[in-house]
Amino acid sequence: MPTVRGLAEQLGLAVNTVAKAYRALESDGVVETRGRQGTVVAMPHVDDADALRAAAEFVTIARLRGLSRDEAQQLVDDCWR
Question: I need a surface site. Which of 4, 8, 55, 77 has the fewest CB within 10 A?
């Protein structure tokens, strides 16, 4: 992601406003600040055991039906809408 100063300049906002937004995003787990490496979008952490079991079951069924990963992903995308 852009630096706080860089984004503030691009958007014409005060640096403190952008810094506050970055802190809020970090607090919500959306982004991670990595010191000199900057701020990056956080990887999602799935701790829901039921959701993981359901996903594993879907993958098993998709494989048994001979679906490719792309085909299975397309089914998920269609259902997500």
Answer: 77
Q: Is the pTM of this model over 0.70?
A: no
On whether both 35 and 61 belong to a single domain, the answer is: no
- The total number of structural domains in the chain stands at 2
Work out the widest C-alpha separation in the chain, in whole angstroms. 55
Q: Kindly give the pairing relationship between strand 39-41 and strand 31-33.
A: antiparallel
Q: Which residues constitute the domain of residue 11?
A: 4-41
Residues 6+ apart with CB under 8 A from 3: 38, 39
Question: What CATH number has the domain bearing residue 22?
Answer: 1.10.10.10
What tokens appear for 55 in the block? 């996903």
